[in-house]
Amino acid sequence: MWQEAIEAALDTLRGNIRNHPGLFPHITEGQKYEWGGNDDWIEGFYTGMMWLGYEYGGDPFLKAAAEEQLANYRHRLDHHIVLDHHDIGFLYSLSAVAQWRVTGSEEARQLALAAADKLLLRYRPNYGALQAWGKEGDPENGGRIIIDCLMNVPLLYWAHEQTGDRTYYDIALKHVRKSLRFLVRGDGSSYHTFYFDQETGGAIRGGTHQGYQDGSTWTRGQSWGVYGFALSYRYTGDAAYLDASKRLAKYFIAHLPEDHVAYWDFDVAVEAGTPRDSSASAITACGILELLELLPAEDPDRAELADALQAMMASLVENYSTRSIPGAEGLLRHGSYHVRGDRAPDDYMIWGDYYYLEALVRMERGIKGYW
Ligand code: GLY
């Protein structure tokens, strides 16, 4: 089943590249993506899918398409195009780091290091973490961290490995420590965001941006935590992060509905028409794959995690994928970006597509993402 799902996904990807040369998929409603420039937080997912596809099948068309985009990412970094946010990690891990990992390109490596330097500039010593959104001092966002950032710090760990400069590692670690202390709750659930006083660094309160309400557990935030803490364990060896990832994963699994694909927030009342977020399940599947590689063989939770992974991925392939929908441009239906915001739920999400493909090629061939 995995192989067939991968082939269908790669056919869709190749069709998108042919039909929309030079463009990137943006969030949409319906069967088609909107296509535009490299000016959101999400473009890296598209490029990352090309690298996964190339590693899987060796198709030179996918490699060339990914390589062609590097100049665009360089231009974006040099001109600081919509980069006042921490998602520099998502963008450049899946484009520049990916290209360096797959081809050894020095040009890609230099770009990834420059991106890591830009991400470092978001560190705020007053509260000891990376500011998620906006410019320094921004009244609304200046003191805010969000759990999603756990997937951005691997760019800093990677830069430390490449250069030996401890600054990258120390700042990544400071941020992840803060995230563990203030975003993860005792029952394994999580806050989406946490606010600190910008001057004194004092802790103010947890809250949400995309979840149901302050204090609820936004499903996708939980999934960023599952994968993000596992990756921090991979880079640091600190068992606290392995434990955090596992606790978040167990909470996620324990709160899944019958078809193993999560609703958009774990605290929202479920009724007819409550939106799912298939992308959260795809991200969590990748996090569980990472966990299964890192946990000791005798860990008592391995079987539960492995069973959940199989059930989640089988349901995504059978019930949520577009493999039998001719002309579909996305891979996974029923993602939810910002249900209470101005984005309609139930759309294709390019990050859902990316993590779905990452999980499939890792299960089938052991090919990992580029974090
Ligand atoms: N990182 C933004 C989101 O998950 O919607």
Automatic annotation (TrEMBL):
Source organism superkingdom: Bacteria
Q: Hydrolase among the record's keywords?
A: yes
Q: Which residues form a coiled coil?
A: none
A GO molecular-function descriptor:
chondroitin hydrolase activity
Family annotation (InterPro entries): 6-hairpin_glycosidase_sf (IPR008928), 6hp_glycosidase-like_sf (IPR012341), Glyco_hydro_88 (IPR010905), UG_Glycosaminoglycan_Hydrolase (IPR052369)
Entry keyword set:
Hydrolase
**Residues that bind substrate:** 87, 148, 206, 208, 220, 224
Its BP terms in the Gene Ontology are:
polysaccharide catabolic process
Q: Where is the active site?
A: 87, 148
Q: Which family does it belong to?
A: Belongs to the glycosyl hydrolase 88 family.
| PANTHER family found in the cross-reference section | HYDROLASE, PUTATIVE (AFU_ORTHOLOGUE AFUA_7G05090)-RELATED (PTHR36845)
Q: What protein does this entry describe?
A: Unsaturated chondroitin disaccharide hydrolase
Could you tell me which species this protein originates from?
Paenibacillus methanolicus
